[in-house]
Write a structure and sequence with these properties.
Elements (H helix, E strand, L loop, with lengths): L1 H20 L18 E2 L2 E6 L4 H7 L3 E8 L4 E9 L11 H4 L6 E12 L2 E12 L2 E11 L2 E3 L2 H14 L5 E9 L4 H19 L3
Antiparallel strand pairs: 1-2, 2-3, 3-4, 4-9, 5-6, 6-7, 7-8, 7-9
Length: about 200
């Protein structure tokens, strides 16, 4: 665990130096505005669009985002997509592991799983938090410039390469949350499978 943290710290330091060295970028907008995002996915219907305070949006540096609750008759799934036209110091994707714990929620498990989608196999992070008797299941991955990655290390390394070679640093964090109870993960997987091809219609490749 310590070795992994040291490697990640080294990657971030090198990445920061590279960001300073390469200043020219080409901001890349989303293909289609999130206002057109489907309001029904895999039998779940949109029931609420949530808005972050403008101060939080500025702190995150996100250019476009969707934060919406989808529900069927017995379960609700929270979807968040945060998109950056270009990433730079002070305006970059951050792992949910850094911001979700708090308010009594404590992480209890963290792994990478793989699911089949219409666009092929997808590796994503499976993250579980607990508060008293409640458990929250989180799926998330990094998507940008034609890649879908679970690994934060790989995302930062590809970001560095693409900034150097393509002058692009656009990218998105895709995160789904659901209460962890009997049957909820199965439904979350079905929702994720249906979501993946939709994302490709909105996020640049």
């Amino acid at each position: 665990m310590l070795k992994r943290a040291l490697v990640l710290a080294m990657v971030f330091v090198l990445f920061s130096f590279a960001l300073r060295a390469v200043s020219t970028q080409h901001p890349v907008p989303i293909k289609k505005d999130f206002s057109f995002f489907p309001r029904e996915i895999a039998g779940f219907k949109a029931v609420r669009d949530n808005k972050m305070p403008e101060k939080i949006v500025k702190v995150l540096g996100v250019d476009n985002y969707l934060m919406r609750d989808y529900c069927n008759d017995h379960l609700c799934i929270g979807l968040y997509i945060g998109f950056f036209e270009q990433q730079q110091e002070g305006a970059m994707i951050h792992s949910p592991k850094h911001c979700m714990p708090g308010g009594g929620w404590l992480p209890i498990s963290d792994s990478i799983i793989e699911i089949n989608t219409p666009k092929g196999k997808l590796k994503l992070n499976r993250y579980v938090l607990q508060k008293e008797d409640e458990k929250l299941l989180v799926y998330y991955w990094y998507q940008g410039r034609g890649r879908k990655l679970a690994s934060e290390y790989k995302d930062r390394l590809y970001l560095l390469l693409d900034r150097l070679l393509k002058r692009r640093s656009d990218g998105a964090l895709v995160r789904l949350t659901v209460p962890l109870k009997k049957g909820s993960e199965k439904e979350l997987k079905e929702f994720t499978r249906a979501l993946v091809p939709i994302l490709d219609e909105f996020l640049p490749s």
